[in-house]
Amino acid sequence: MHGQWSSRWIYILAATGAAVGLGNIWKFPYLAGEHGGSAFVLVYLVCVAAIGIPMMMAEVMLGRRGRQSPVNTMRTLAKEVGVSSQWQWLGISGTLAGVLILSYYSVIGGWTLAYIVKSAMGTFTGATGEAATNLFAQFVSDPLTLFFWHTLFLVMTMGIVARGVQGGLEQAVRYLMPSLFVLLVVLVGYAMTTGFFTTGLSFLFTPDFSRLSGTSMLAAMGQAFFSLSLGMGTIMIYGSYVPEGTSIAQTSVAIAIADSLVALLAGMAIFPIVFSQGMQPEAGPSLIFETLPVAFGHMPGGLAFGVLFFILLLVAAWTSSISLIEPAVTLCVENFRMTRRTAAIWCGLFTWVLGLGTVFSFNIGVETTLFDMTFFELLDFLTSNLMLPLGGIALAIFSGWLMTPQVSQSELQMQDMTGYQLCKCSFAFWLPLRCSLFS
Ligand code: PFF
User: Fold this and answer.
1) Fewest CB within a 10 Å sphere: which of 135, 195, 238, 400?
2) DSSP state string for 396-424
3) Closest Cα partner for 236 from 82, 87, 52, 15?
């Protein structure tokens, strides 16, 4: 039987858990750092409001209407509106993207586990920037170590997924999400004691439009999309568990606000800490694993707060990773008549094997490239730059143009025609913008 969230509140927690991930705490701060801070933040927030929220509503709407895995939902809905059943490919590509993303997300999730242990052991106490860089390089160069942490992280993920919607996913988010917010607020409180809190705030919030380039706008839009987990079926499957009578518009707004708030709070925690040690915010992807540990290593109470920071990162990655595999597990249950536990084991095993490609991308396979990209870079490119945007375009076409207004209006419960038309316009507006990503 298809699952259902036990309340609207649990759904908001679960979908926020799916949305809040490495993207918010790892990617958002370094992108903001690279693209000039506040100007990037502003465009990002506009993209979330103008494109993200309507797209989320569309995806939840399709999920709740179909009430199956994304593949079967798309097949059923295509039949309902009288178009080709090939629309199921939207579900297939989304489900596949989830597995591909999880295969590398799990490796990075494993890094956060390892960094909790390293921080707790005082590895970074008094460390120089060079030492932290060497430590990171040494860490990723050992395939066995990465293999171990990747395995552990994936077992933790599949352990929850195997227990089902109410027994697994709900129980996990019920405890993990409040912990995540508490940890974040504690870390922001800690950042306030550094004496550089206002420097961090002005970096994040003082608009500097001279730094706004076309590239930074595209980066902000891509990040809004990735951060809200749109375009690949995870929000669709979470939507399929939403009880009747829940307002899709209100919950989508709540989820988008919570997701953006976490990204902003993460920035408010990270930048003052980085500035207080005279370090630069433009470090890129290594900001979290190289710059930040050094900063913690030189601060009073840095050991405890460093550990808390990596626990926060772990929780964020964990609640997202369970959502990434959910479409594939449900598909196996529906189409191959597997029990949920068996489906979780098979999907987990497949993802685990695929993840080895990412493990080796940082060491023995670093020279093995295709189109000048390692296996990990190729997967990231394929999913973030091709599968998610294409999935999003297809989703916009289907929900904006093919679904009949009666169906979408009744699912969205939008008696107010202005709001409804605004949403439809946004799907249409979003399309050419997204296409420009390919140019
Ligand atoms: N939204 C997640 C993050 O910000 O890290 C990443 C993600 C999770 C993307 C689930 C897509 C997805 F389906």
Assistant:
1) 195
2) HHIIIIIS-HHHHHHHHT---HHHHHHHH
3) 15
Alpha carbon 14 to its chain centroid, in Å, reads: 12
SS3 104: helix
- Count how many Cα atoms sit within 13 Å of the Cα of residue 170 in the half-sphere of its side chain: 15
Task: Kindly state if the Cβ of 109 falls inside 6 Å of ligand 1.
Answer: no
CA distances from 343 to 164, 311, 330, 347 (A): 11, 29, 8, 6
Which CATH architecture describes the domain 8-438? Orthogonal Bundle (1.10)
User: Whole-angstrom Cα distance, residue 161 to residue 173?
Assistant: 12
Query: How far is Cα 184 from Cα 406, in angstroms, rounded to an integer?
Result: 42
Query: Quick check: 436 pLDDT over 60?
Result: no
Residue 308: exposure state from Cβ atoms within 10 A (0-12, 13-18, ≥19): buried
Looking from the CA of 332 toward its CB, the CA atoms found within 13 Å total: 20
Q: Is the CB of 320 under 6 A from ligand 1?
A: yes
Both tokens of 313, joined, read 């990162």
CB distance 101 to 383 below 8 Å: yes
Q: Looking at the predicted structure, is the pLDDT value of residue 100 above 90?
A: yes
Burial of 133 from C-beta contacts in 10 A (0-12 / 13-18 / 19+): middle
CB 19 within 8 A of CB 227: yes
In the 8-state DSSP scheme, what is residue 370? B
Asked if residues 241 and 3 have their Cβ atoms less than 8 Å apart, the reply is yes
Lowest mean pLDDT among 116-120, 205-209, 254-258, 301-305: 205-209
pTM of the model: 0.89
CA distance 339 to 337: 7
Cα-to-centroid distance, 9 and ligand 1 (Å): 20
Exposed, middle or buried by CB within 10 Å (0-12, 13-18, 19+), for 273? buried
Between helix 388-397 and helix 53-66 the angle, nearest 10°, is 70
Give the separation between CA 414 and CA 403, rounded to whole angstroms. Answer: 15
pLDDT for 191-202, tens place per residue? 999 899 999 999
Residue 373, helix vs strand vs coil: strand
More reliable by pLDDT, 369 or 155: 155
68 ligand 1 Cβ < 6 A: no
Give nearest CA residue, ligand 1 atom 12. 229
